[in-house]
Amino acid sequence: MVSEAPSRTAKLLLLVAVALVGLNLRPFITGIGPLAADIGAETGLDLKGISLLTLVPMFLMGLFAFAGPFLQSRVGARPSTIASLAVLVLGSALRLFSTNGWQMVGTAALLGLGVAVIQAVFPGIVKRQFPHHVGVVMGLYSATLMGGGALGAQAAPLIAAAAGNWHVGLAWMAVPAALALLLAALYLPRDGGSGQKRTSAIALLKRPRVWLLMACFGLVNGGYSTVVAWLAPFYREHGWSASASGSLLAIMAVCQALAALLLPMLVRGKDLRPGLWLTLALQAIGFAALAFSPLTAPVLWAAVLGAGLGGCFSLSMIVALDHLPDPAEAGALSALMQGGGFLITALPPWIVAVLHDLTGGFVAGWLMHLVSVAIVVVLYWRVAPASYARAMSPPTQMRPV
User: In whole angstroms, what is the distance from residue 62 CA to residue 57 CA?
Assistant: First the structure.
């Protein structure tokens, strides 16, 4: 077990655990798109039903993230993470036996619950264990999270084809989740002592800045949830195979991972807004290209869109943690930002499915996300470092955000 003052070796092993935990938070979502046709054919799920396999876990990621402050103060971040990884192992394994739509939605709910708890408590662990390297370690966590998305998108159709069974293409994800569970049990540090602050979610929710961060996080990640749900089916409608469309989604996720890792290192100073605006510009280019010229350079569009989404995710997490100096309070703020954000994020894949039914294509959905990007550009204008302390002060002392 790692001590309260861990050695350099223990810190390195902890970084490996951070990376492996992040790697397991997205494959169960990104693996669905390339196999959507096969899943629908066996389970009877139509496009709106398939969208539930993204909507339900994203909704639970939002709903249960609000429990983050309670879990950190009453249960502890370490036991919460370990229990949640066990849930990921179970949820992935059960997909081997899921034969109808409701069973698949049930496993999506189970997996979403496990990821929700991890995402709610894990940034606090990073802030506490790496107080002087938050940006770099959050970049690593975000990069492996996105890299896990690439792994799911690429491996799911390949394993399904090799096994002749889409169930195996999804259930294999129990293996890396079990490895993450083992490493977390061995190397995640014990939680802080009784002196650790207990942060009230209600108190934080009285601050308008928290709601602004939720809106930005939700609108951007709504683009991510739509892309992982519908990019592969979009190109399958253009005649691509399951493996080719899965490879395109994997390319997008690899670029997400690279941007999530590198941008926190490259953006200088405390003001992260220039980096955020760069990522939003990349997203705008990607969504516009999908809407108006999807077949001109699909790999380039996927790469540009992935870089924009991944970099924005990583920088958004750092912005939330930078708002408060105390690790417990910063972790609670991050949990709430993700909570409200993922409640928003859950809806776009379903909305895009409805728009597809109404218009016969995905163009309206891509344009919807182009508008969302424009809104976030305006909202992030207000998130200047000089405003952090004022925005997070008690309500009686607050000025408008």
Answer: 9
